[in-house]
Amino acid sequence: MSMNLLLMGLPGAGKGTQAEFIVEKYQIPHISTGDIFRAAIKGKTPLGIEAQKYIDKGELVPDEVTCKIVAERLKQNDTKNGYLLDGFPRDLDQAKSLEEITDKLDKKLDAVINIDVDPDTLVQRLSGRFICKNCGATYHKLYKKPKVEGTCDVCGGHVFYQRSDDKPETVENRLKVNIKMNTPLIDFYKKLNLLHTVNGNQDIANVTEDINKILTNLN
User: Fold this and answer.
1) How is the chain split into domains, by residue range?
2) Among the options 104, 141, 163, 213, which is catalytic?
3) 167, 127 Cβ separation under 8 angstroms
4) Which residues bind ATP (predicted)?
5) What is the pLDDT of residue 24?
6) Is 129 annotated in some ligand binding site?
7) Across the beta sheet with 82-86, what order do the strands follow?
8) Is 125 a residue of the active site?
9) Could you give the 3-state DSSP secondary structure of residue 113?
10) Given 68, 73, 125, 129, which residue is catalytic?
11) Is 180 a catalytic residue?
């Protein structure tokens, strides 16, 4: 049986870690829109060249081009036993286009896994990073503190800073935008009986175990 999956989750929910597990266990390609855009542009495919024009102008690549690039990727031979989509669809229009694409290719989604994490936890996760000003070593307030407080493990420096996109207010804003985008998609896939929500507040191993149970039951 094929394993055609979509992985959803807010920034910091741990999608990357879980994607690695799914791809390794089920031997299916991880298809992230960022990667396929880069491959299409690097390979100078007609769609890659078209996408590059928008990127060069600092504009968003239109849905029509994005959907064609995704369709092109899903036609490739390595998706015959399934695929793991990540970062697409980003809105309802793209979700409806994906339905049409997968219908035509006879590669309809089998499940949508949504890793659900409390937004306050995500703010802590995402805004906890700080960097040594002297050598650039990165630390985290929760997960990777320096061995001696206030002293860099690598160079012994004492001055740390936080990147502007790691600051709590920036992180909160980013999450709000993502929640607004994700909510209609969650409703859409719930109505199609494809949605499986996993509690992402647990330890990584428990999240993996929960995802594994869902996927095992699909077979």
Assistant:
1) 3-118+175-212
2) 163
3) yes
4) 12-17, 129, 138-139, 202
5) 94
6) yes
7) 30-32, 82-86, 3-9, 111-116, 195-199
8) no
9) strand
10) 129
11) no
192, pLDDT greater than 70:
yes
* Residue 185 marked ligand-binding: no
pLDDT of 57 over the 90 cut: no
| Residue carrying the six token digits 């990584």 | 204
Average pLDDT over residues 137-148: 92
156 assigned binding-site residue: no
Q: Annotated binding residue at 67?
A: no
pLDDT-derived band of residue 56, with 50, 70 and 90 as boundaries? confident
Q: Hey, what are 89's tokens?
A: 């669809």
Of 25, 90, 108, 133, the active-site residue reads: 90
Rg for the chain, CA atoms, rounded: 19
The superfamily in CATH containing domain 3-118+175-212 is: P-loop containing nucleotide triphosphate hydrolases (3.40.50.300)
Catalytic site residue 73? no
Instruction: Consult the annotation and say whether 60 binds a ligand.
Output: yes
pLDDT tens for 19-46 read 999 999 999 999 998 888 888 899 999 9
Is residue 48 part of an annotated ligand binding site? Answer: no
Give DSSP secondary structure letters for 150-203.
TB-TTT----EE--GGGSHHHHHHHHHHHHHHHHHHHHHHHHTT-EEEEETTS-
Query: Residue 23's pLDDT is what?
Result: 95
